[in-house]
Amino acid sequence: MKTNSITKFNTLIENIPDKPKKLFYEGNIDLLNNTHIYICIVGPRRASPYGIQATEHIIQYLKDFNVVTVSGAAYGIDGLVHSLSIKHGIKTVAIPGSGISDDFFYPRAHLDLKHEILDHGGLIINEFEPDTRSSLWTFPVRNRLMAGISHMTIVVEAEEKSGTLITANLAADYNRDILAVPGNIFSRNSYGTNELINKGAKIFVNIESLREMLVEIGERYGISLNT
Length: 227
Description:
The protein contains 8 helices and 9 strands. It has about 230 residues and is an alpha/beta fold. It has one domain: Rossmann fold, CATH 3.40.50.450.
């Protein structure tokens, strides 16, 4: 599929202080037309069974709403978010930590997932030149765009120092809603989410917690919740 670029973005990206100068994309750019609620869902590459179950629970619920999921195309929760979104008929946006061309897409094992996203009307996007290799510096930049493009970020699991927490903290800097799934105090994967809740993130008590946030976001931004 042909790679294109844009220099004018949707309202959410336009309003972040460090917005990109250009975005490269493949797929359905109409997904960024300000008519959906964009939900970034993030978690670790090595998710626990609990994290996987929570992600499945959340996305199965979201299928009945006018939402687009956003994640980073990585191993673990990111890839699961995209796969489950496709399964449930939810459009999804993948923002990899590399150039988006097939020859440089990272991780290589998710190249088939990339094309599955595109085949189901999704979008692959980021600000790197298409032939950019993944590197230590590309992932924090990618996380910034994930947070900036989304109305809310759901943190399923996160270790104490992780890219997942970087995304959540950036979402907080952009005054976006954050919903954190609480976890076992003895689990490394739950340290970050429990700490986010301690610092003021909304807690995922049950599915009603998510519904209330969707209603609030819909009213705030004038977006219909109905598909």
